[in-house]
TrEMBL record:
Belongs to the FGGY kinase family. Keywords: Carbohydrate metabolism, Kinase, Transferase, Xylose metabolism. GO terms for molecular function: kinase activity. It comes from the Bacteria. Residues 251-432 form the Carbohydrate kinase FGGY C-terminal domain. PANTHER family: SUGAR KINASE, XYLULOSE KINASE. This is Xylulokinase. CDD domains: ASKHA_NBD_FGGY_FK. It comes from Microterricola viridarii. The keyword Transferase applies. GO terms for biological process: D-xylose metabolic process. Residues 3-242 form the Carbohydrate kinase FGGY N-terminal domain. SUPFAM superfamilies: Actin-like ATPase domain. Pfam families: FGGY_C, FGGY_N.
């Protein structure tokens, strides 16, 4: 048996072929299409669907008919917050804002909703469709819209050749109108966007079978008629699942432009959480997650540019220069913004400091900020973090591993899985078709524990204590210390 995992990412769409018991992976990728507008990037769901079809065709191109006949399903994961409006004629109303394109921000803040959530895209779309002069939806009006769904659900429905588009709970968790605790849509909050609640789609647990693959596509690809389409869930959390994060007390770090920290819990705290802490339903359909993030990759690129060292060194050369700087960066401290805040406070830069002194101070500040939010998440669960698993390009740096291994809330493991979200989607497809008991962690390519030096522990403890003092002194709404 073989499974396909599809990951619709912000910049690339990946297709992965997974055969249980085989260490090899076949992976193909294409650019995820966008539409440029005066507001920023938009996404055309029809173009994304066409890209997914092309990726699957490329993935299967070299397979023999007998190998294609072994494929049991297609699991689909994608970026979150993006929505699709489906008309009564079964077509989309038009391109919609990408998750990172800011629209209706003021309305969201007034309603107490995260401006990145799907709510803002729907509020903007209702205003556009209500305007006779709207340039965004020239052929449709509000009355023509019959369904609201997410991007991955729309693509899954198209792959199955059906006209219903259920939404899984992990994606619903990022909508702004889903009650994570009860697992129900918040109809009144949805209707604040202007849309009627009857447009809300069916809710399903992550890993649910949508239907079998559309007969025409199955014939085109040589798949068996029983091959199924599965909604795997949110890409960050499919990545966690693909990297073996499955248990209560495990924390997953997805390091990239945004560094996501996701703590898996069996139940949510009974008390209200601060607005900086995201909550949602995990892709296994039974656990929840607590979530915070840092703009680590964004700040790294910003600071290497400011310091004039972007693209100056190879990663190994940069690591050597960072290792040459002392712990504590000669007294320089950088306090990064938390969550979506990309600002930072720079303190005590000494005369004679080099660009790599400041860069090390930034990376130390990010490591301390990561420990700060991980300890904060622990205070909400009353149980320690058992293991931290980190994935992403920054994690492959020996200096990153050294620093984060010493400034950590739990033993830190680095995974080398190349396309963890697509693998997670394939595994959840396997679970949906073959049963949960068949899903182990032996499919993970490799992971290793970071090594630490006991002689350095005191210096790193002092570094974190200094960071906490300065953080308390310079506290902002995004990084205010929770007691």
């Amino acid at each position: 048996m073989t499974f396909i995992g599809i990951d619709i990412g912000t910049t690339r769409t990946k297709a992965l072929l997974y055969r249980p018991g085989s260490p090899s992976r076949r992976i193909v990728a294409s650019a995820t299409p966008t539409v440029s507008t005066h507001l920023g990037d938009f996404r055309d769901a029809e173009a994304v669907f066409a890209t997914v079809v092309d990726c699957i065709s490329m993935l299967l191109a070299d397979l023999r008919p007998a190998e294609r006949a072994e494929i049991e399903g297609i699991g689909l994961t994608s970026l979150s917050e993006e929505v699709v409006l489906v008309t009564s004629s079964g077509i989309t109303a038009g391109p919609m804002p990408a998750w990172y394109t800011s629209v209706a921000k003021a309305q969201a803040l007034d309603a107490g909703i995260d401006p990145s959530f799907s709510w803002t895209k729907l509020s903007w779309a209702f205003e556009q469709l209500s305007s006779a002069r709207s340039p965004s939806f020239t052929e449709h009006a509000v009355a023509a819209i019959k369904q609201v769904t997410t991007l991955n659900s729309y693509v899954a429905g198209r792959l199955a050749g059906i006209d219903r588009y259920p939404v899984d709970e992990s994606h619903a968790s990022r909508s702004g109108f889903f009650d994570v605790r009860s697992g129900q849509w918040q109809r009144a909050i949805f209707e604040q966007t202007g849309w009627k609640a009857e447009l809300l789609p069916e809710l399903v647990v992550p890993g649910s079978v949508v239907s079998t693959v559309d007969p025409g596509l199955a014939a085109q690809w040589g798949l068996p008629p029983a091959a199924r389409v599965v909604l795997a869930g949110h890409d960050h959390f499919c990545g966690a699942f693909g990297n073996g994060v499955r248990e209560d007390g495990q924390l997953y770090i997805s390091a990239g432009t945004s560094e996501a920290h996701c703590l898996i819990v069996s139940e949510l705290p009974k008390f209200p959480l601060p607005p900086t802490v995201g909550v949602g339903r995990f892709v296994d359909g039974t656990h929840f997650y607590l979530h915070r993030q840092l703009a680590s990759g964004h700040l790294y690129r910003q600071w290497t540019g400011l310091l004039g060292i972007d693209d100056e060194d190879s990663r190994s050369q940069e690591d050597q220069k960072l290792f040459a700087e002392p712990i504590g960066s000669r007294g320089t401290t950088i306090i990064p913004g938390f969550d979506g805040d990309t600002s930072s406070s720079v303190l005590n830069v000494k005369a004679g400091s080099s660009p790599h002194t400041v860069l090390r101070a930034l990376l130390e500040g990010l490591a301390c900020a990561a420990l700060h939010i991980d300890r904060e998440l622990v205070t909400f669960t009353n149980r320690p973090i058992e293991r931290i698993i980190a994935s992403g390009i920054p994690c492959q740096s020996p200096f990153w591993q050294h620093l984060r291994g010493h400034v950590t809330a739990a033993p830190l493991y680095i995974t080398d899985e190349e396309e963890a979200p697509a693998l997670g989607a394939a595994l959840l497809c396997q679970r949906a078709t073959a049963g949960a008991a068949t899903i182990g962690t032996d499919c993970i390519t490799s992971s290793h524990a970071t090594t630490t030096d006991a002689s350095l522990e005191a210096d790193y403890d002092k570094l974190f204590s200094r960071f906490e003092r300065e953080l308390a002194r310079t506290a902002t709404p995004s990084n205010r210390v929770i007691r």
